[in-house]
Design goal:
The protein is mainly beta. The chain is built from one helix and 27 strands. The strands form seven sheets. It has a six-stranded antiparallel sheet. It has a five-stranded antiparallel sheet with strand order 5-6-20-10-14.
């Protein structure tokens, strides 16, 4: 990631007197350090016919963070603060059918650890009232001490899900904030710009969700998006492609599968994928071997794609495990 830091004079964001948790829209100051990202990068894994993208990375424009300047309020707009916000989240209203979230990329401006709790990164569906965050449908954790190290090294924080989560509609991804005194995190965010509505959300202490732009929340004082991004992958179509000398039996199978293939002058690779594109089994066989058995009894029940290939030929076939 190419990035550089530029100095910026702090300025006070002035807002109207709105009774949102007392003074939520007043006494907010921008950090003195901002930065600008380089060009975004996509990750392509051709060996599995899967393309992955870190969505909205990098954010355009100047990146900064905001904090409170006067007692009794303290902390960060995009992290722990005296309002005791529970979650900081980003809304993603568009999605591609057949895609899955495999993890998260975040960049924290502030991270301090006292008790080193595990920090939860989650995905929420939009089943709440009027499309607000509803149920948390997937999550993963990372120790706060590891996030502190990322901040000190100016590294991204990367967290992977144990299993890909299939995207079927609009969703939110977020960070559950630590609650022990001395444990603190805050994300970088896009610099406030009038006219940009932003995509940032937070969950208040009472469990209710608000967009940053909501008049009852930060309103027009912080219109922004945070440096919190899903890693979204999609498996390109591995269509069935039959080779006349290849066969797989029995199919459906409960475990042992017999495979017959063509005689080859090169090594033949066998790989079995889940329908989300995850490699579940991989093995190479000498080209002279044309008949062999494999034990797939450990695979969960479901539909898989089996692929045989050498440098000249390929056989793709769906395999049902019962």
């Amino acid at each position: 990631m190419n990035k550089f830091f530029i100095a910026a004079l702090p300025f006070l964001l002035i807002a109207g007197m709105v009774n949102a948790q007392g003074t939520r829209q007043r006494n907010i100051r921008q950090a003195e350090v901002t930065k600008v990202y380089g060009n975004p990068n996509e990750t392509v894994n051709n060996s599995r016919e899967t393309v992955c993208d870190t969505v909205r990375f990098p954010l355009p424009g100047e990146i900064t963070y905001y904090y409170f300047t006067q007692p009794p309020h303290y902390g960060y707009v995009t992290g722990n603060n005296s309002y005791k916000d529970k979650v900081k989240a980003e809304f993603f209203g568009t999605f591609e059918t057949g895609s899955s979230i495999t993890g998260f990329v975040a960049e924290f401006a502030v991270a301090r650890s006292n008790s080193n709790p595990d920090i939860t990164f989650g995905i929420w569906d939009n089943s709440g009232v009027d499309g607000k965050p509803g149920a948390m449908v997937a999550s993963a954790t990372k120790p706060l001490a590891s996030i502190v190290a990322d901040v000190q090294n100016e590294d991204l924080t990367k967290v992977l899900l144990s299993e890909p989560f299939a995207v079927t509609g609009p969703y939110y991804i977020g960070v559950v904030l630590p609650t022990t005194m001395g444990d603190t995190v805050a994300l970088w965010c896009r610099k406030h710009v009038e006219g940009y509505n932003g995509t940032a959300w937070d969950q208040w202490e009472d469990g209710t969700w608000y967009a940053f732009s909501d008049p009852d929340n930060w309103g027009n004082t912080v219109l922004t998006s945070m440096t919190l991004h899903p890693i979204v992958c999609k498996t390109l179509g591995i269509s069935e492609k039959a080779d006349p000398e290849a066969s797989v039996a029995p199919n459906p199978s409960t475990g042992i599968v017999n495979i017959q293939k063509w005689r080859s002058t090169s090594v033949v690779e066998l790989e079995i994928f889940s329908m989300s594109g995850k490699s579940m089994y991989k093995r190479s066989f000498p080209g002279a071997v044309t008949n062999f058995n494999i034990d797939l009894s450990y695979l969960p029940k479901g539909i898989y794609m089996l692929r045989l290939r050498d440098d000249k030929r390929q056989h793709n076939q769906k395999l049902l495990m019962e």
